[in-house]
Amino acid sequence: MKGLSNPIRLIPVLFICAIVIGTLLLSLPFATSDGVRAPLLTALFTSTSAVAVTGLIVVDTPTYWSFFGQLMILIMFQIGGFGIMTAATLFGLMAGRGFGLRQRMATQVERSRLETGDAAAVLKLVLKITIAVEAGVAAILAVRMMTFYGMPPGEAIWHGVFHSVSAFNNAGFSTHSDSVMGYQTDPVILVPIMLAVILSALGFPVMQDIRANRLRWRRWSLHSKVTVGGTGALLLVGFFAMLAMEWQNPETLGPLGFGAKLLNAAFHSVMPRTAGFNSLDVGAFHDQTLMVNYILMFIGGGSAGTAGGIKVTTFFVLFAIVLSEILGRRDAGLFQRRFGRAVERQALTVTVLAASLIFAATIYIASITTLPLEDVLFETISAFSTVGLSTGITADLPPSGQVVIAALMFVGRVGTITVATALALGGQERPYRYPEENLIVG
User: Cys staple from 31: which of 19, 69, 97, 149, with CB 3.0 to 4.6 Å?
Assistant: First the structure.
């Protein structure tokens, strides 16, 4: 019990337990549409992708899995999105009778400035936002599917609920074989999904800050300012890059009208934030578009939410460090606030470890397949950043390649937390310091 009261150990354990239970459930005969047990690797990969809210698949979700199987997948990405994070905090509080300094530091790395006394408030906020957003988006989608696409009420409600929960949890799973490509000219379907993705990708500390201080920018924390400002900047970059690079591509934006081009460019500037839905054929993107997606996926969304990646704040901390070095400033910071050295080290460590894992996985998969390198790199970044977008190679990977992708999804979902908190806790401070000696850099 003492070991599990520490969130560093508790969160990965809970994720592993959820993945194992999900694998067992998806291995049941009635979890598949044909009543035949799914292969263990297929069940494990799908369970990992769902719990890690990634969305990468090796089998077609609507045709391979039965209603029971799809329902289990929905429950898994609902739990994986934020339930385990909340449960870890609350369970740690109960087991440890209140966090000590080290445990508080551990949870603060992913939850910004939340303190022990905020646990109940966080849980209420999460539940209220989740119920409101998922119910609202599900209602819009279901009504639209019934009235405009002629779906029977039961089918429309199921599709609406599934896509709503998947969007809010940044999961990217769809009950349609072509994701949401069938709705690429319909803003009533795509816009609510986009808004749900953006909101949940901001992270719960930002939601709490906005709830407490409304739109009074000056009262927001530095974390909220960087997350919201950085998110807006990255969305604009993705939007204009999609328009510029895919405008005349006959397999993506080319055949669409002006309004539909703007809609789909906006949609695909949001989805690399770790959502995973696609209204266009990602495999048909130009190479330069894929490269922009590499960057957007690697950065991801906000901390302490349902998004993955190295996180927006991490990226802009590194950007501020580089800028301060170029300008010859002693301190790095943004919005008239400077960063502490610990934050700078955490950002650097998370980024380097993430890049190293992606690099190693890409080399391994490229060495055992004949798939194009750009597609393999896209897949590994998408897996680590829990995005779920794919150029279509997931099912073509050999078993060992799928295991590597599954491992990346797991590490991407919980690894940055454990690495960052391990750095924050860092063991005991040495009672001495070594002599300083500089080396040539650059």
Answer: 69
